[in-house]
Design brief:
The protein is an alpha/beta fold. It has twelve helices and 15 strands. The longest helix is centred in the last third of the chain and has 19 residues. It is globular and about 65 Å long. It starts with 29 loop residues before the first strand and ends in a 12-residue tail after the last strand.
Length: 396
Amino acid sequence: MPTLVRSLVLGCSAAALALTPLFTAAADKVKVGFVSTLSGPSAALGIDIRDGFLLAVKMNGGKLGGLPAEVLVSDDQFKPDVAKQLFEKDIKRDKVDFMTGVVFSNIMLAALPEALDSNTFYLSPNAAPSPMAGKDCNPLFFAVSWPNDAYHEAAGQFATQRGMKTVYLMAPNYQAGKDSLAGFKRTFKGQVVGETYTKLGQLDYAAELAEVRAAKPEVLYVFLPGGMGINFIKQFVGAGLGKDMTLLLPGFSADQDVIGPVGNAMSGIFNTAHWSPDFTNPANEKFVAAFRTEYGRTPTLYASQGYDTANLINAAVRDVHGKLEDHEAVRKALKAARFDSVRGAFRFNTNQYPIQNYYVRTVGSDGHGGLINKSFSEPILKDHGDAYVQDCKMKP
């Protein structure tokens, strides 16, 4: 782990939202529980979120909101029960002020009740399942990334604009996978000729590729994050299917952690995202340069989300002048999101999910012998929220 994981300790317990004291003293330190997938085939995703988060803390002088910060980093091992235990430890024993870090929706949904039942804020740098955007929305939950459906809604819109008539859909059989294909179908106006849900963590796709070949779609849309996506794209290219159909991906299935292992076969692939390393806003240019200097690689979407999450906490702690026991004030400060996001325009909807732009990216030369994502100048979806906000009964 990078040397910037240095921190100081805080033992400030969180007060219930309904029991905020009339007077609260400023805390002297901030404590964050960071639980993520840091081992196994999908470890790259959690590592990138962690590295982006810790980079922001380092760039803030080891502080959040002007207070010394401790980040307790733990590996959930891609296991829901482990994540649940780690959340309980961080909240009940270590008395953290904020929880964050989880990559996958199924793991987050298993562990999240530990935070919500203990009146601890959870800021999601990645997983943002549809139930939490609608009927299960909660004032302690903030999605700092994107609704699970959004990248896929952007992809469906792009396929429609390109005049594609038939599509085959594939995703893992868990909440984010189901949300992904629902999102694509919400905006795609053509015909779905096949739809397959694979095992989460699956790495061999010979049977699925045979079904795709037989269906003969014009476009194949696949959501397979991490090692799943790497193996799938290699097998797709090896099967020679690229000459018969267009492969369209969400951004996290065509990010730097995928481009590196797959190589030149990624060139020209279209994907959709809310962020790209070539964004020219000052916050992003600062982030990308600092990340490359600190870690020697180009940041991914995951890293950008970890970085933004840390800076959101930084802004909220700053805006409440360190009075972390005033939960309602902290919630309002988080919701105000007074920080410069690397994605550009960003604000929270009433359900505390983001309203933001989504873009089409294509993989091309970085000018130095490598490949990198480059964004189209105009968003495919502008100021886009989610399809579930009307089901959220949370008060503003």
